[in-house]
Description:
alpha+beta; Nucleoside Triphosphate Pyrophosphohydrolase; seven-stranded mixed beta sheet; 4 helices
Amino acid sequence: MPDAAAREATRRRDDARELLSGFRAGEPAEEGHRQKMLSLLLGPDDPFARDSVRDGHFTASAFVVHDGHLLLIWHRKLLRWLQPGGHVDPEDEDLQAAATRELREETGVTGARCVRLLDVDVHPIPANPKRGEPAHRHHDVRFLFEASSHEAVAGSDAGEVKWVRFADVDAELTDASVVRAVAKLPR
């Protein structure tokens, strides 16, 4: 009989597979990302472990909205405005729990309601020689959250936080994958 850790790893893979199988991508490129994620779940490496760099690993993020605005953080390592998010920790029950934890750690926002899976994206991450990390890919699962106020404070990887009107989220402010996801937000 498999040990508890093996059962937990299988459960996490099954949960992610179910989540991604039920998601309908908005465009062909996003469908390609979804298919890559489903393939990653079939691989030999732990797809949730930060040190799984051959095919990349899952990350989870939060697109937090309130009153027509999106919450963004200034990412200190990547030097750009992005949605809160990051790696899946061993104690995270699932990808949604990882997104919720990252939201709290990076912005102080608690009590935001997770509405649904909003977007999926696979993107390259540059090498980080200081940490001994080679270039790799993040398979980012992006959840839509609704906040009850504009209260937020920068923490952990976030140099700053700011609320941006949906109409002001463009390629000059952030990357194209964030712009694509924002286009799906209810207006």
